[in-house]
Design goal:
This protein has 247 residues and is α/β, with parallel strands linked by helices. 48% of the residues lie in helices and 15% in strands. The protein has a single domain, classed as Decaprenyl diphosphate synthase-like (Undecaprenyl pyrophosphate synthetase), CATH 3.40.1180. α1 runs parallel beside α8 and α4 packs parallel to α5. It is globular. 33% of the residues are buried.
């Protein structure tokens, strides 16, 4: 027990010393985890929810201010209908059940992605969660659902074009900061650390603009097995990086 307490204290110091504010995660490997154990993919997705609960808890313990997780991409609609339907129902059930925990732990939840394309019941649940947690600030949790970075950037371009057409801004006023303010992640700092579980070495259309200078850390661990130690190791690895930002 003493060792665990010391570990938490040390990680909190690393987070403070390195100014680590924002961790983004590609939660990959639920289906492969299930397949390796000869279980249905649904079991892997349920275990993945448990891993997310643990990660949220430990991010709070370590002093992380922002956590953004990739839950469902715009490309995931191409999966089998049975799996897609299950993921939709799992999100609805999980969010409905977790709102009291979010409020108890002072977690502000936002959903980023094309939420309007989801069914009315799911939209209502997600928007209610955002409303119920909007005044919390210990941890800012962004859940990327029906999210694709190319779609996000395309929508931002459309919004900016409309503002130019309406003479709200001039073309000369468009810069990197203005573009950032028209993304789903407006007012959220860019990720310092991008973690991908499951061993795949690609970004998969996730936070392409925001992750331009994020430190990327890929681990072979499947998402359902991602735990406190895995998160601590990721933060320790971040401490070793020399962030030059092109300098």
């Amino acid at each position: 027990m003493v060792q665990k307490i010391c570990d938490t204290v040390n990680i909190k110091k690393i987070v403070s010393d390195t100014h680590l504010q924002h961790i983004a995660i590609i939660m990959d490997g639920n289906r492969r985890w299930a397949k390796s154990k000869f279980l249905p993919s649904a079991v892997g997705h349920k275990k993945g929810v448990n891993a997310l609960r643990t990660t949220i808890k430990e991010c709070i313990n370590f002093g992380i201010k922002y956590l953004t997780v990739y839950a469902f991409s715009t490309e995931n609609w191409n999966r089998e209908k049975e799996e897609v339907d299950f993921l939709m129902s799992l999100l609805a059930k999980t969010i409905s059940e977790e709102i009291p925990e979010f409020k108890k732990n002072d977690v502000k939840v936002r959903f980023i992605g094309d939420i309007e394309a989801l069914n009315n019941n799911l939209k209502s649940i997600l928007y209610n969660c955002e409303k119920e947690t909007q005044n919390h600030n210990t941890l800012n949790l962004q859940i990327a659902f029906n999210y694709g970075s190319r779609l996000e950037i395309t929508n931002a371009v459309k919004l900016i074009c409309k503002k130019v057409q309406a003479h709200e801004i001039s073309i000369d006023e468009i810069n990197e900061d203005f573009i950032s303010k028209n993304l789903y992640t407006a007012e959220i700092p860019n990720p310092d650390l991008l973690i991908r579980t499951g061993g795949e070495k690609r970004i998969s259309n996730y936070l392409l603009w925001q992750a331009a200078y994020s430190e990327i850390y890929v681990i072979n661990t499947f998402w359902p097995d991602f735990d406190k130690n895995a998160l601590m190791n990721s933060i320790i690895e971040f401490q070793k990086r020399n962030r030059r930002f092109g300098k």
